Amino acid sequence: MIPTQPIPSIERPDAAQTLWLSLLVLAAALPLTPYLHWQVSAFLLFLFVIRLAGLRWHTALPGTWIRALLTLAGVANCLHANHSLVGQDGGTALFVTMLALKLLELGSKRDLRLVAILLGFLIVIQFLFDQSLPLTLYLGVMAVGAVAMLVDLNGGLGEARLRSTLRIAASLSLQALPLTLVLFVLFPRLNAPLWSLGVDTTKGLTGMSDSMEPGAISELVVNGELAFRVRFDRPPPNPNQLYWRGPVLWEMDGRRWSPGDLPAGSSAAPLVESGNLIDYEILLEPSGKRWLFALDLPLDTPDESSLDADFQLLSRQSLTAVKRYRMRSALDYRTAEPDARERERGLQLPDNITPRMRALADEWRTRSASDAELVRQGLAFFNREAFHYTLLPPRLGANPSDEFLFETRSGFCEHYASSFALLMRTAGIPARIVLGYLGGEANAIGGYQMVWQSDAHAWVEVLLDGQGWVRVDPTAAVDPSRIDNRSASQLIGGGTSVRFDLAQASALAQFARNLRLLADTLDATWQNWVLDFSAKDQFALLERLGFGGLREYGLVVLMVLAVSLTLGLILLALLRDRTQPDPLDAHYARFCQRLARAGLPRRPSEGPSDFGQRVMTQRPDLTPPVSRFLALYIPARFGPRQSRETIGLLASQLRGFRPHR
Amino acid sequence: MTGAFAQIAARSRQSFSNLLRRVPTGADGVARVGARQIYILPTRTGLMFGTVLMVMLLGSLNYQNNLGLLFTFFLASVGLVAMHHAWFNLLGLAVQVRGGPPVFAGETATFEVTLRAEGQRPRHDIQLRKDADAPPPVHVPDGDQRLVSLGLPAARRGRLRIKDLMIETRHPMQLFRAWCYVATDAATLVYPLPARQAPEPGHDAGDARRPHRTRGEGAEDYVGSRGYRHGDSPRHIDWKAYARERGLFVKQYGGDQGQEVWIDWSRLSAPDPEIRLGLLTRQVLDADAANVRFGLRLPGVVEGLAQGQAHTQRCLTRLALFDDTHATDSIH
Q1: Strands A243-249, A294-295: pairing kind
Q2: Same-domain pairing of A85 and A223
Q3: How many CA atoms lie within 13 Å of A2's alpha carbon, on the beta-carbon side?
């Protein structure tokens, strides 16, 4: 390979620089691999291998023509893998491929600098895929590495190059931190995107679906991810009161419950009674759905959402980012009497109600005087008969409700809620299914509750005369001795579901749990203060500083002021002369100070020997220490060199030297 | 027309040059770079860095990606801090410029620049620049000093001064280039370019091409050789020794000892004073090489009869610094 223009020697990178930069790019691109198509990753690996081989055997590096071919191959590879060169996946694959190709063409330091600068872009891209704290820390190290690379490429650092490079890069990074913080807090944010490049944000999100069939919830429960965090203003209520309300299901087709068509434009009727109000804040993980969860029964409506007639909170848009909202709920409530149409909807039955189900419902009806009595009968049935509660129920056939009730008798909350609601409807009591979460794990370190996907739950609401819709949880009626903890702990993996009562008693388990809580606290803080920091928080901060009325202008002014101030402080710190006093001078100053305390101050014009003479004539008793000190000090001060031993000797002389008046 | 433009350009360059802040040299001969004399601008790398940061900022703002913003701001802050480090790297640097040994016109004059890092911090990547010459950047450890020599083409005789010495740094990340101009009085003496040949001093030979020193060449006694010194006449080089690869030696003749020669401006007839000075320089060098006692007479200046290196240098200095205005007076 003959370069078209000879590169001046000062601009030619050395092998170590090329190696370090290549490794840096490799390390920075590594976290992207799970999100790249395997073809793209394979091509990247191939390029890195050529690069590293090229360091050892220079001839392994491809020439201009082969590089052009490789570039074409890279683009074609990306196109084949993602069917696109734009968008989140296509664009990222293309960018990483091009960056890796650039590694094959590192002729001058300028090329290396370009790659080091583009590393910043490579880092930022990755936050479209993952925003976790560990990744951020890792990429932070990479960013400092890019800074160090630029420092080293500039050169002029003297002999201890590596040490100087790292020291300078560290001091640059540390000094940049306060400035970064100021910019991060005060730089005005956009409230809506300017353009959209097809970033797919719903990918890989888990959340409650808006329908229920056997196995739907247990799938969610096993998932084990966090659903949301709650911070109560006052001590939290009892865990068995923590029913987090989500989708409400009306229609049953024999196997699957679905919401059905809600009368358009319906809104929640005011409650007849409400008590035991509770205020809290929820930090909801993105689910890709629109449900906002709230304690049964929500009273408030957060921004950008609505509360419908079934008391479901619905966000206007799908939740693709963490959502924070304040809520107020009533733990004790009485809903208004619904109209006849709603009553009608609550009594629809699928066509696969078997005679024995009908017989069971009829039997309860004849044995009870009121609807409330009938509900109690139903719950007693689940408690009395040998129903088992397990996450691993046997497979059910065409009529799951009938099979569950009379044959398998072991199931999960969805089975209980579904069959109970059907039996209630058969007996003539309007009933509906509510999906949501039950309970939550207290995080004492963070002072909040964590609600996991493993807390997903389904329960029933029945319409009782004079009481409105009343919550009934048939799962809670199951005899605790028939709850299968083993399968749960196996599947949930050390979770803390209220229903399964997975107690961890051992010290190690306790320790592990505390670690997990601490990690979650960190994660919550990260979510709250970094990932979720928005224009709203900025304005709140501005408000607190008393510039609330200035809005964006206030932010800009404040940002400029704060940046200038921070830079000024950094500069002052740099300018502060770091000269330490000469140890010899320091010892002499101490010597003079002690004599001054004894009433013998040195005159400004006096040199050490004149001063010593005067001291010895005025205070003959001080002659030995003073003459000993000066015998060491004067040759050291005015002689050719001062050694460390002399300073040590002077220090020992001074130690016992405390002249009195 | 072009002349007028050139004049305007020269004048504007001059007025711009007057506007430049330079680092003054203190009473101790050392120039210390002050805060207000440092210029700073982004480099090409810096512009590239800024462009990539802008793209990162727009993207992160658009996708409301706080971590993207965080890293963009971090790199931007590093850039801002680096700018101050570049400035700070020059601030307080002590520079001392000295002229090098005298040279003949047409050669390269050297200047010795001492860079001292006073105080507790080292200076990185300090580069000197004057016109085309830019020696490689140096690192000065704290409390230490480094010597850098700078070559400058000596076009004309006289004192060659280095008016604005540029000191620049791209430390720490080559995002910014900070530089300053050091004003210094340091000068290197430039002797006139010796003529290739010169008539025998004492003879008024209008024809400089006439074979030199025909008289008594054979009468000179060879007394020995010495090493070649710059400016020695090629005629005295011991070519035989050179052919035997012993190196360059100059034959010394003792035959002229006791001979006295006056090298005289008025005995030459070349009309251009510079050509005359060139001839005189050649005569001085020849006389020195021939080991004769010689004196130098220039209009208004007389250097008495003497011999030796010091005398030769004195004479060459006279020639280097000779003021032509006297010359025109004396010719007519």
Answers
A1: antiparallel
A2: no
A3: 1
Both A552 and A608 in a single domain?
Answer: no
Give the residue from chain B lying closest to A189, CA to CA.
B61
User: What value of ipTM does the predicted structure carry?
Assistant: 0.77
Q: Which residues of A590-603 are buried (b: 16+ CB within 10 A; e: fewer)?
A: ebbeebeebebebe
**A473 catalytically annotated:** yes
A562 near B CB under 8 A: no
Nearest to B75 by CA among A148, A94, A130, A189: A148
pLDDT digits (tens, 9 = 90+) for B284-331: 998 888 888 888 988 888 888 888 889 999 999 999 988 866 555 444
- Find tokens 């700073």 and name the residue: B40
- Give residue A637's identity as a one-letter amino acid code: R
State whether B163 and B309 are in the same domain: no
Is B254 inside any structural domain?
Answer: yes
Q: What is the CATH number of the domain that holds B35?
A: 2.60.40.10
Domain span at residue A570 reads 538-575
What pLDDT is attached to residue B329? 47
A457 catalytic? Reply is yes
Contacts of B44 in chain A (CB under 8 A): 110
Q: How many CB atoms lie within 10 A of CB A359?
A: 11
Question: For the CA atoms of B17, B23, B25, B27, what is the dihedral angle to 10 degrees?
Answer: 130
Which of A89, A152, A402, A413 is catalytic? The answer is A413
Beta bridge partners of B140: B123
Catalytic residue from among A296, A310, A455, A473: A473
- A317 to chain B, any CB pair closer than 8 A? The answer is no
What is chain B's length?
Answer: 332
d(CA A292, CA A325): 9
Tell me which of B188 and B27 has the higher pLDDT: B188
Cβ within 8 Å of B, A 269-298: none
Active-site residue (options: A296, A457, A523, A587): A457
| A90 in Cβ contact with A161 (< 8 Å) | no
Residue contact A532–B127, C-beta within 8 A: no
Residue of B nearest to A575 (CA): B88
**What is the least distance, in Å, from the CA of B131 to any CA of chain A?**
18
Residue of A112, A154, A196 to mutate, interface with B, max B Cβ within 10 Å: A154
Q: Does A128 touch chain B (CB under 8 A)?
A: yes
Does residue A2 form part of some domain?
A: no
Q: Please tell me the distance in Å from B171's CA to the nearest CA on chain A.
A: 7
The segments of chain A whose pLDDT lies below 50 read 1-3, 199, 202, 494-495, 498
Task: Please check whether residues A543 and A619 belong to one and the same domain.
Answer: no
Residue B144 has pLDDT above 60, yes or no: yes
Separation between Cα atoms, residue A558 and residue A562, nearest integer Å: 6
Query: B46-56 pLDDT, tens per residue?
Result: 999 999 999 99
The encoded tokens of residue A180 equal 């970064």
Same domain, A335 and A367: yes
User: Which positions in chain A touch B63 (Cβ < 8 Å)?
Assistant: 128, 193, 199
Structure tokens at B278: 């060139």
Which of A131, A176, A179 is nearest residue B67 as measured by Cβ atoms? A131
CB neighbour list of residue A457: distance below 8 Å, 6 or more residues apart: A217, A243, A413, A435, A436, A437, A438, A475, A499
